[in-house]
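Why does residue order matter? Because the sequence determines the fold. Keep that principle in mind as you read this record.
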Amino acid sequence: MGTDLADKSASQLINGYRARRFTPLEALDAVLARIQALEPVLNAFCVVDARRARRAARESTARWFQGRPVGSIDGVPMAIKDVTETKGWPTLNGSRAIDAAGPWREEAVAVERLRRHGAVLVGKTQTPEFAWRSITESELHGITRNPWNPEWTPGGSSGGAAAAVCAGMVALATGTDSGGSIRAPASFCSIVGMKPTFGRVPVWPPSPLMMLEHCGPLARSVRDAALALGPMAGFDPRDGYALPEPAPDLLSGLERGVRGMRIGFSPDLGMGPVEPEVRRIVNGSKAVFTDLGARVTRVKLDLSAAGPAIDAICNPLAARIRRELGRRGSRLSNPVLIEAAESGATQDALTFLDGEAVRCRLRAQMAAFHTRYDLLIAPTVLVAPFAVGRDRPPGRDPRRASEFMATTAPFDLTGQPAISVPCGFTRAGGPVGLQIVGPLGRDALVLRAARAFEKGNSVGRRRPPR
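Structure:
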């Protein structure tokens, strides 16, 4: 990492505060300067609130001088995705259909907890309209671009969060994931994106994506992802899907490695063609785990039923979004969302239940898989970053805009913890991510394996051009 405080990880910032080498206010000034320099190019933020952030940073600085930090991320600059309610800031879901006037009085559980642990919230990051697109572009906010190459998309729907973390505009950000929206942008931006077990992070106020929504962190290191997820996790009675248990210890076993673990490797999960360079890079990741003492076995795993199932479940949710907006529903402009809403409005209940039946079978299939293997590894997505202004890369299935993210969707249906970690770059410099999937509830195991891979894989360590 460079000497600029904006390039330091959350863990490095915490260590620096503790040693009094610099303060949270100095770290905030560095990220605000980075935002000022790069935001005109990247368009990662829809809200930047320097005044409120400086107040929070001054309060954090005072706590550190007194030796009394309030939590594990006290003073760390952080951003919130614009689908997650944040008191005092608009939550527009990237849409002109929401009245920007507010009032904005609600605060999501995850945001409440991050504030309680001292996070310095800088602003809100861009998302496509209602997070319903695999790129981050909307009529409301325009195009969000990839720090590795502004002509590329950062992916979606947490593309603003991924771009901001990658570029050093914040150290941490929240994302949401109901079809790969944390992991795919993490892959495209060569950062870490963690989708925890469903219900691990309570989602309240409820998401329009209800039984699919996962909230988790994006970070520049696995340790930082664990550091951020800890405060976000744990039961809250307001969310009926929340796991009725306290947050797990995600840090104490993080460095234990993978020696002796049984890891199944699938090159595509039965989901269709993987770009040759992506396949080559991900295949090379097997050797890292083998060198670390794990037993890696190539497996035949066909999860292709997840594609039609997630459409059958999501399309009625899109129709409900439009219905709940009332007259403002006519202002929706996301073509992928509108098409899904049209389909969902005429879909019968049996089709929805067929999708739920597939979800049950996928859960059973993966439960059986994990009786033989501790973890599954696979490509995060099937492609490397592609040009902005289009929903899919050239040559992909035109009938499904998010087909290139097919390897992420099964684990939103099963609810399993899954993480994307950087594993290499194409010849054109495009980042490629490796997805690590664990059994339900084993978030700590997934993070532990990701940390071992991160340490053992030198190929993925680069910084984007400034």
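The mean pLDDT is 96.
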